[in-house]
């Protein structure tokens, strides 16, 4: 059975490695340059120590948290990652079912096989957030913002550290197109008549996205949706302050899981500075390298409201579809709850 001998995220990762075809494993595990930042994300958590408070009554431990007004049962949500179709035929829908089973939120990636509406309708009980790219055509952005709002999404995520160059030209992955059917209905209203990954498709994508985006684009989004806006990819206190000045509601401290600029700091190391800079004027979350419940507790103890996971959800999806995603979240929750009991730290 697929759930035998799986007791940790590391076990799920191993199972995913065995199940995923090489191209998919390569895409999911890719890091920037030589992976300094990816490694540092993991190692940084190990450098922090928990100081337990004992003799407290820990019989009731509450793992729930409120994110932008929505209550999540657990302080672990699923961040935007591209192309879940590599891990499972039901792609993002299966991931969303896993998240909904644990009553936590999920960000629908723009590089998803399912449209804004399909995704929301398939998992009506889910907590849905939408990650929108910056486009040159603002009418297109406005349409996407309105669609997300109408479909019941409760936040817009804007990623500020993504460059499309590595996505287009990843020499380690080899020739495209991919051997599974891909479509990205949230990027184009009318899909280009080219295979995803082909040079022609990449040209269409490059023509549509606005790169680089600037603060002015963030302001435009802020002014053009009623939904809360989360800025993902903040690593400096100064950018966090600028985000707050522009009315951004949430800041996701992230280095893209070490997939973009290498040599930038581990997220957990810059979290305290950013929380200080924000001064309670926005919610602050963190992602990158969360692999255990004690990692989650460390992030919360350092002031994060909630953590996001990227690869672990994809590993769960590859391991056992929606149930595998649920299992990943359950493992982290069980470990977190135990760590809360043993350290006397809880909400
Ligand atoms: C990502 N991530 C990401 N982020 C984003 O804003 N837009 C995107 O399209 C993607 N795509 C993507 C694909 C894959 C395969 C991975 C693994 C990641 C980054 C993601 O949201 C998150 O920041 C990191 O994955 C967090 O680090 P961990 O949990 O993977 O260590």
Structural account:
Belongs to the FMN-dependent alpha-hydroxy acid dehydrogenase family. InterPro entries: Aldolase_TIM (IPR013785), Alpha-hydoxy_acid_DH_FMN (IPR012133), FMN-dep_DH (IPR000262), FMN_HAD (IPR037396). One of its GO terms (molecular function) is FMN binding. It catalyses: a (2S)-2-hydroxycarboxylate + O2 = a 2-oxocarboxylate + H2O2; 2-hydroxyoctanoate + O2 = 2-oxooctanoate + H2O2. The chain has helices at residues 9-19, 22-29, 36-47, 91-101, 116-122, 138-150, 165-168, 199-208, 215-223, 237-245, 267-278, 293-301, 311-343; strands at 65-67, 70-72, 76-78, 105-108, 127-132, 156-159, 229-234, 250-253, 283-287, 307-309. With 347 residues, it is an alpha/beta fold. Helix 12 (293-301) crosses helix 13.
Topology:
Blueprint: H1 9-19, H2 22-29, H3 36-47, E1 65-67, E2 70-72, E3 76-78, H4 91-101, E4 105-108, H5 116-122, E5 127-132, H6 138-150, E6 156-159, H7 165-168, H8 199-208, H9 215-223, E7 229-234, H10 237-245, E8 250-253, H11 267-278, E9 283-287, H12 293-301, E10 307-309, H13 311-343
Parallel strand pairs: 3-10, 4-5, 5-6, 6-7, 7-8, 8-9, 9-10
Antiparallel strand pairs: 1-2
Residues 27-28, 41, 79-82, 109, 111, 131, 159, 162, 232, 254, 256-257, 259, 287-290, 309-312 line the site of ligand FNR.
